[in-house]
Write a structure and sequence with these properties.
Structural class of chain A: mainly beta
Oligomer: heterodimer
Number of helices of chain B: 0
Strand content of chain A: over 45%
Helix content of chain B: under 10%
Structural class of chain B: mainly beta
Shape of chain B: globular
Mean pLDDT of chain A: 93
Order of helices and strands of chain A: EEEEEEEEEEE
Largest sheet of chain A: 7 strands, mixed
Number of strands of chain B: 11
Number of helices of chain A: 0
Distance between the termini of chain B: 41 Å
Number of strands of chain A: 11
Order of helices and strands of chain B: EEEEEEEEEEE
Helix content of chain A: under 10%
């Protein structure tokens, strides 16, 4: 089974802390994505990566950065956490194969910033 | 940028048929996907349309019209377990050798007895 694993299911952090959310996939996928999900707003793309050390901004990158040093791992970094970053964060991965379009999601990290 | 529009909520009776529409605006369009998400769960892939027409997978079908920038998900013989949120998502060319996957806000489907 394809597996996308996020390091934490629940996190509570203080305002101003640097926060790392980790995501690991075991299917040798080229593409990895970070989304945040808020009620009524759906899944909003923060950043994505199509190769090691490559990254592209999504729709809401402000306040976030990412790191992809190895193909299987994609990290989301909140440089200085703020309360408006309280959300569910979802990581996904997919292949670039045009015939295989499915994206696989991790179980999500519910981050609360206090 | 990209934008997708889908209804926020739909209610349907068990055993009936329901259609969830999605309209989109994007550049470098590759295709339209549908995902299902139960409360507390992760989104899971349902279907993909890269070309115009209907794709059928069991009780679920998905349709795409690229000229109209429109697609829909059709769920037949509704079951209580189909109560979930359904998201359309566009796959479009990011211009960086890969693609961006952008989601709509989701449609919450409630199936009632």
């Amino acid at each position: 089974d394809v597996k996308v694993t996020q390091s934490s299911r629940y996190l509570v952090k203080r305002t101003g802390e640097k926060v790392f959310l980790e995501c690991v996939q075991d299917m040798d996928h080229e593409n990895m994505f970070w989304y945040r999900q808020d009620p009524g707003l759906g899944l909003r793309l923060i950043y994505f990566s199509y190769d090691v050390k490559m990254k592209e901004k999504g729709d809401i990158p402000e306040g976030y950065s990412v790191s992809r040093e190895k193909k299987e791992r994609f990290s989301l970094i909140l440089e200085s956490a703020s309360t408006n970053q309280t959300s569910m964060y979802l990581c996904a991965s997919s292949t670039t194969d045009t015939l295989n379009t499915e994206a696989f999601f991790g179980q999500g990290t519910r981050l609360t910033v206090v | 940028g990209q934008s997708l529009e889908q209804p926020s909520e739909v209610t349907a009776v068990e055993g009936a048929i329901v259609q969830i529409n999605c309209t989109y605006q994007t550049s470098g369009f590759y295709g339209l996907s549908w995902y299902q998400q139960h409360d507390g769960g992760a989104p899971t892939f349902l279907s993909y349309n890269g070309l115009d027409g209907l794709e059928e997978t069991g009780r679920f079908s998905s349709f795409l019209s690229r000229s109209d920038s429109y697609g829909y998900l059709l769920l037949q013989e509704l079951q209580m377990k189909d109560s979930a949120s359904y998201f359309c998502a566009v796959r479009d060319n990011s211009g960086a050798g890969s693609y961006q996957l952008t989601f709509g806000k989701g449609t919450k489907l409630s199936v009632i007895p």
